[in-house]
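#struct-help
A.M.: can someone run this one for me? Single chain, 108 residues.
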Amino acid sequence: DPGGMFQSIPVSEWSSQEVKAWCRSIELDNSFNEAVLDDLNGPKLLALSKDDLEKRGVKTADSLKILEQIQWLRHGNFKSRTIEFCGEEIPEEFLCPITHEIMDNPVS
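D.P.: on it. Structure tokens below:
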């Protein structure tokens, strides 16, 4: 699966091709227009804020999903609808402080 190749490359070294493959893997590739994706590499992706996404025409609901996924990337985890969690240690900020379960949509 050539679309999964991004997983073997550090995010800091991603080109726009890996960013596009990652967006497809989390089913958010339709949130960006093609010109925006052509301009995004790994370091730019990791640095995106909610304002940056909205300036690029991403809807608020989609921007929150994208930021959540970027947060996973910052911790070295690829979370997608097709990849199951590999039993690695879960970062503390992803766990509910009350139930200690993984939060689907944590509030920052």
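A.M.: thanks! The CA atoms of residues 65 and 93 lie 16 Å apart.
D.P.: also worth noting: The first helix runs from residue 16 to 25.
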